[in-house]
Structure prediction request, 135 residues.
Amino acid sequence: MPIYTFACESGHAFDRYLKLAEYDVPQTCECGKAAQRRICPTMIAVDIPAYQSPIDGRWINSRAQRQEDLKRNGCVEYEPSMKEHAAVARAREDAALDAKVDDTVEAAIHAMPARKREQLIAEIDSGVDVEYTRV
Ligand SMILES: [Zn+2]
Prediction:
């Protein structure tokens, strides 16, 4: 059902869905005055501009080809929310890794000979500067 734009002589503009059979039926504005149909430019949705697929170099000339290209290469359309979801997942992985590191350090300290462990605790309590070295 097409949508038509009308305007009454007071300048009130409104859109109305009408069946094609009602094309010539006079329309009345909410203010009660007769309304005339307005000619409006048609909105045309242009297809995407042509580009070369960054994945396999094929030319993409339409949205359909773009969808096909993404599907063929196991990709999805980028959406801004993906960045947030990835950041949340990364933070969760970092927290899990930190917990694992803490457990490993805790286990290593626990496995130390009692004298060495007491010495380490005393050093930490005295505020000794600790330098970490990764190998
Ligand atoms: Zn009116």
About this structure: Strands lie at 3-8, 13-17, 27-28, 34-38, 51-52, 59-60. Residues 82-125 form one domain.
